[in-house]
Every structure is written in structure tokens, then in C-alpha cells.
Specification:
This protein has 79 residues and is mainly α. The protein has helices at residues 6-18, 25-34, 41-73. Helix 1 (6-18) packs across helix 3 and helix 2 crosses helix 3 (41-73).
């Protein structure tokens, strides 16, 4: 598992707390500052990029898993 920083955890929690609501990086930065996490806008952008990359990787892994599961359920055509 990759190293997870306090800033990453704080941004992740802030994003999760917003649910499906749209937001800007500037709004996240303000929310984080109000909750005692003094981070800059550049830090928020970097952490959002990491979150996006982690989400893409998880989606790729899920797709590969589903593909393997479907292939293992296919009928044996040599019967």
C-alpha cells in the first residue's frame, strides 16, 4: 500500500463528506482550513490528482476481475 499523507486523508474525508455535490478545489481548500488543516490550493490539486488516479486504478482492477469471473463461468465448449 502506498504511503498516505495527512493531507491526502484530509482531502479524501472532505471529498467524501460532500457526497455527490459539485465543488471546486478552492472550496475544498477553504473547508480544510476551517477544519484545522492549513493546506494550499496546489496541495489540494495534487491530492485530487492522486485520488483520481487511485479511482481509475480501482476501476481497472474491478473490470479485470469481472472479466476473469465471466470467463470462468463460460460453458466448456469441448464437451
Amino acid at each position: 500500500m502506498p504511503y498516505v499523507t495527512k493531507q491526502y486523508q484530509a482531502v479524501l474525508q472532505c471529498v467524501q463528506s460532500r457526497g455527490a455535490d459539485a465543488f471546486t478545489a478552492a472550496e475544498l481548500t477553504e473547508d480544510l482550513r476551517h477544519t484545522g488543516h492549513p493546506v494550499g490550493l496546489a496541495t489540494v490539486y495534487r491530492q485530487l490528482e492522486k485520488l483520481e488516479a487511485a479511482e481509475e486504478k480501482a476501476e481497472e482492477e474491478l473490470a479485470a476481475l469481472l472479466e476473469r469471473m465471466c470467463k470462468s463461468k463460460e460453458p466448456n465448449e469441448t464437451l
